[in-house]
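User: Last request for today: this protein with zinc ion, please.
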Amino acid sequence: MEKKELENYLANIVLIMKADGEYDPHEIDGFQTICKGVGATEDNLEKAMQVVENGDYGLTPAGRLSDKIRNLEDMIYVFLSTSKLPDSEKKIVLSYAKMIQLTQQQINEILKETRQRFEAENQASFCDACGKQMPQGSKYCPFCGGRC
Ligand SMILES: [Zn+2]
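Assistant: Here's the final one, the structure of the complex with zinc ion:
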């Protein structure tokens, strides 16, 4: 990806992190891993944070189709790192997925795969009923009471 594309790629993720008004420390961890993965420099990162902070950045799909899908996966990954799974963040993920013209079935598949990757990498599990992250070893979901 070119510099500008890479900055948009990162800014899309920053938008997710910022959607609920605060940067969650877990989100920042996830974000740093993502930055390494796409070869972003400190400079790219700062630029991306800046455009979002300025308040006039809107979701912009960046790069080739494979980059756009990877961007979506990264956005979902960061979304999952906030155990609260705020609706404000979910809305951005979904509108981005629609923007790159994925079908609902493709979106569901990517959600499922990213969730499995997140669970494997973080030894975490999510409730099948409500989708929230559950404390390890719990038998019932503390959020909705569903069986784990
Ligand atoms: Zn639940």
